[in-house]
Structures are given as structure tokens and as C-alpha cells.
Write the C-alpha cells for this entry.
Amino acid sequence: MKNLGLKLLLLCVMGIFTLGASATPDKDYLCFTANADGSTVGMTKYGTPYDVSLEYSTDDGKNWTSISWTEGSYGSIISQTILLNSIGDKVYFRNAKAADEVSGFSKSGNDYYTFEMDGSIAVSGNVMSLVDSEVKTKIIPCDYCFYGLFEGCHALTSAPVLPATTLKSHCYANLFFCCSHLTSAPALPAKTLTERCYDSMFVDCVSLTDAPTLPADALATFCYYYMFNGCTGLTDAPLLPATDLAEGCYCQMFSKCTGLRESRDLPATNLAKYCCAYMFEGCTSLTNAPALPATNLADFCYIFMFEGCTSLTNAPELPAPAIRNGCYVRMFKGCTSLKSIKVGFTKWYQGSGTDEDMDATALWVDGIETEGMFICPDELVTESGENRIPSGWTQVFEVKANKDPKYENYYSTFYSSKNAYKVPSGVTAYTGVVEEDASNSETSVLKLTAIADGIIPADEPVILRAKQSQVYLPYTTTTATKSTDNKLIGTDVAIDALGANDYALSLGQNGVGF
């Protein structure tokens, strides 16, 4: 029994040494793992990027070999190809120098390093090991630092960690461009962005199904430009929390994402030129557009935003009271399923016809269906066509009514000094006459009389009774005769205070009344 115990102890000790032999590196170096036998990894150097001291290891970081370079085609310089013979084989990459000794990595869109892969490879680890042997820094050292690093790597199936919180211009531009087998995106923790930092980052990553969380609230010029263009596998757009936008920041961000169905609301209230241009252009599956609460617009801010969104049935509300140069140009062009648009502006903006001064609504509803509802303020002049109210659509004014808690009806008042409106089905419009109360000579009552011809004439104040809280009154050119004894008084503008003998319809403790 003693000998058996000794043998078991020896086996346990040997097991400990065996496990120690397969330990991973002590730092989170950039790692390439084969998903298929015979996969290969190499690098190409275009132009004259920064001169860096790159090394690789195939034995879990025990030994490191400097990457050697030879001349390639079209002026490129290529490294040796590293063969990963079997599934699970790994190769690690790092910069031999620490971050404080490294000036940069890639330098521009013509001077950069990029990986070349064949087979099927999962990438993991920290991309910052390419600029820091200690893998500690979270500061990108230079503009264009990781530009195009995995561009065209169809063999790539997973992405490395991108922990940087301090970015530089174009630092991740084209990073995963056309990585057609990439299924998930890495976290992007930076809160403050830089010019074009994510430009074209995931273009045509057709297998990408989930976008990363985008927590940044300080944006920069064209920071998200083209970021997910052509990512046909995406179904939901991430939340974009910034309230202050920058020029072109969301330009073409999700264009041609044909699988995208949902988009989160855009809380931005301060817009910039071209900030949302082409943002969802060609998203043919989009059924729910984001809320657009901004009321102060910028030149060309929403140009082409939803062009070609053929599944969109209701446009987001556009509450801005005034429109400006090119802001809605081709915004809903080709949205063939669109049935409703609600706007807050009271006057059409007509530009001079130049590229820099265009109609705010030029071609904004070109190619859409001829049936729908255009909800707009009473003051907006009726003009139809591809540049104005969609041809064939019904122009309506929206009235919000209060529910009487004692009954099933909703009540509101309505008045227009300019236009006549139809009374829609399910709604009754009343004028009011003050009469002496038959049971008490010292009191008076308001007697309501329904409008018989179904037309509310201009300058005729009325009380509306409906079965729902929202009433849509269609604009009409049909004339009708005003009541001669209507004692209701209407106003187009807000009144600061009522007189001692004035009453307004409201919802009180006893229900709806004056």
C-alpha cells in the first residue's frame, strides 16, 4: 500500500509539470489560432509606414523571432508566411519595444501594415501589443495607427480586443474592411472620438450580426463614416447617445444594411452639416425609423437619410418649426411603402438651385406611393409633388383630444383662421349657442349644434367629440357657410391669460368642460 501511494504522488507531480508546459504567454499578445489545418498568416507593408520592430512566437511566447521582409509586387514589402499546420496551432505578434519607445505603426492610407491570411483563423488578444511589448497602454500613438490592419482578411472569424480609450484620427479606419466571415465586433470603449476614427471599419462584413455598443458622447467629423456600410447581417442598430453631433458623423453609417429592421432613437438635439446623410440609405428591411427630436436643423443634415427604405411605412416625426438649405433632400425618395409623414415646419424653403443652396425638400418624396397622410401645421401652404406634399396624399391637421373620465368620448376645440377642414368619420364638430337655462332664469347654458355638412369653414371655432385621442382633420378647398350665432371664439395664437368672463375647454376634476 505504501508503494502505491508513492506512485500516485509521483503521477500527480508529473501532471503538474505537464500542465505547466502548455502555459500561455504572460501578456495578452495579439494571437492567431487556426480553425482549419494548413491556415497561414503573413504581413504586407505598403508605402513607408513607421519602422517598427515586430516579432512573432509559435511556442506560446517562450521564444520570439523578428519578422523578416522581402520585396513584393506593386511596390509592397511582404513578410515570411507562417504556417499553422493543425487546428489549434497559434502564433503571437508583438512589438519588441515598449509604448514609450514607439512613435507609431501605420502612417496613412498609402503607408500602412496589413495582415494576410488564408484558411480559417480566429484572432484574439490585445491589438495594442503591436505598439507596446508590455501590452499596457490604452493610448493610440499616431494617426492611422491600425488603418486597414485586417483589410480583406476573409479567413478572419473573430476580432482582437481594442481597449484604447484615447484615439487618433483614422486610427481604426478600414480595420476589418471586407472581413466577410467576421461574426462579432469587439468592444469600443472610447467616450471621445476623433476625425474618421471608425471610418469604414466594418464595410461589407456580411456575417456580422451584432454591432458593438457605442458609448461615445463626444463625436468628431465623420467619426462613424461608412462604419457598417454593406453589413447585410445586422438586424438592429446600436444606441447612439450623443446629443451634439459633428459634421458627417453618422454619414452612410448603416447604408445598404439590407437586413437592418430596427433602429434606436437618436436623442441628438444639436445637429451639424451632413450629420445623418445617407445614414440608412438602402436599408430595405427597415420598418421602424429612429425618433428625430431635434428642432434646430443644419444644412443638409438629413439628406438621403432613408432613401430606398422600401419597408418603412411611417416616417419619423420631423418637429422642427423651420427648415433650411437641403436639410430633407431625397430623405424618403423611393420609400415605396411609406403611408405617413408628420412635420412641424410652417413654410417651404426654396433654394437658389445651386449645389450649395437647394430646396430643403428637393425630391424628398420622389417615387413613393400616391396614398398616404401628410400631417402638418395649419399655416403650411398646400403644394404637391416630389418636392412638396406627396401627390395624391391627404393633407391633415392633427388635434389631440382629452378623454372624459365619465364617458367614452374624447373632446377638444379646433379653430383655423385660414383653411377649411373636413370632419372625418367617427368625429362630430359642434358650434355653440348660449341660451337661458329653462329651469333657472339666472343661469345660461351652452347648447351644442353639430355641423351638418361635414365641413368646418375657415374662421369657425368648434368643439370636437371623438372616439380616440388623436383626430386628423383633412384639409379641403370645399367652401361651407359659417354659423351666424356661434358664440365660441377661436384664436391661432396662444393667449397669456383669460379674462374674468372667459372660459376654455379643459380636463378638470369633474371631467371635460369649460
User: Anything to note?
Assistant: The helical segments are 2-20. The chain has a mean pLDDT of 92.
